[in-house]
Design a protein that fits this description.
MetI-like fold; 11 helices; about 280 residues
Length: about 280
């Protein structure tokens, strides 16, 4: 009886897991399916379509006519800078709040981590007013500042968990050898934070890659517009080329999907280790 119950339990578990996987993957399948059809075929019945002719030219139009390379360059540049700054600031802030003793230590640490409770889009209007006054709209800083500011609390939270687990004797030995604070942080502590750094970098990249609301609010010229703006290149006043828009969205989502699939184990491992150690 126990063996039969175990077998039934495994079957139920697999059915549930497969159902969850299908639900999670269906939007991606739906996106690719509609991107290979024509705009007229999208208005037929059914969740999925079988295109009469596979329209690879949708992807060619998306790539050529959607200023894809220009927007891709902007997205890669902004996200790369955001990742570097978030990792750099998170390491220093976590070390300062966890290892260094000063009056406002606990208050500043709590205040920074509480940033995770603030929705990023709740700051659209005040940020826009500030950027307008400082003439930062339509610049790279209009996106870089909020991307870093809202990713840093999560990064600091994960870094703090890892730093707590590091033996203080390493830092004490470094001080005895004459190391300054910066050498301790970047030559001794930072190399030991590789799992946490990988996790923070990947999560920062994924969180900001497809962000559109802030970009559309702060940017009005094509100079620093990011990949999600490619979709708008095929939106007309009275009609839109929906098939090509789906192709643009598939191309835009592809880098994030690839990064997640390849580096998923690092995300899971880093978050789990940070939670246990913290």
């Amino acid at each position: 009886m126990k063996e039969n119950n175990k077998k039934i339990g495994k079957v139920v578990l697999w059915v549930v897991l497969i159902a969850v996987a299908v639900i999670q993957l269906f939007p991606l399948v739906w996106l690719v399916d509609f991107s290979l059809g024509s705009s007229n075929e999208m208005f037929t019945n059914g969740l999925l379509i079988i295109p009469e002719k596979i329209r690879w030219d949708n992807y060619v139009k998306a790539f050529v006519d959607g200023n894809f390379l220009h927007y891709l360059r902007n997205s890669v540049l902004i996200n790369t800078l955001a990742v570097v700054l978030v990792v750099f600031i998170s390491i220093m802030a976590a070390f300062a709040c966890q290892r260094m003793k000063w009056k406002l230590n606990g208050f500043v640490s709590t205040l920074l981590v509480m940033g995770m409770m603030i929705p990023i889009h709740a700051t659209l209007l005040p940020n826009y007013k500030i950027y307008s006054a400082l003439h930062l709209t339509d610049t790279i800083w209009a996106l870089l500042i909020p991307y870093v500011a809202f990713s840093m609390p999560q990064g600091m939270f994960l870094m703090t968990g890892f730093i707590q687990a590091l033996p203080k004797e390493l830092e004490e030995a470094a001080v005895m050898d004459g190391c300054g604070i910066y050498r301790i942080v970047f030559q001794i502590v930072t190399p030991l934070l590789k799992p946490s750094i990988a996790t923070v970098a990947i999560m920062t990249f994924l969180n900001n890659w497809n962000e559109f609301m802030m970009a559309s609010t702060y940017l009005s010229t094509p100079t620093w517009k990011t990949l999600p703006f490619s979709v708008l290149e095929f939106t007309g006043e009275y009609s839109s080329n929906y098939a090509v828009q789906f192709a643009v969205m598939a191309l835009t989502a592809a880098p994030a999907v690839i990064v997640y699939v390849i580096l998923n184990k690092h995300i899971t491992k880093g978050v789990a280790m940070g939670a246990v150690k913290g």
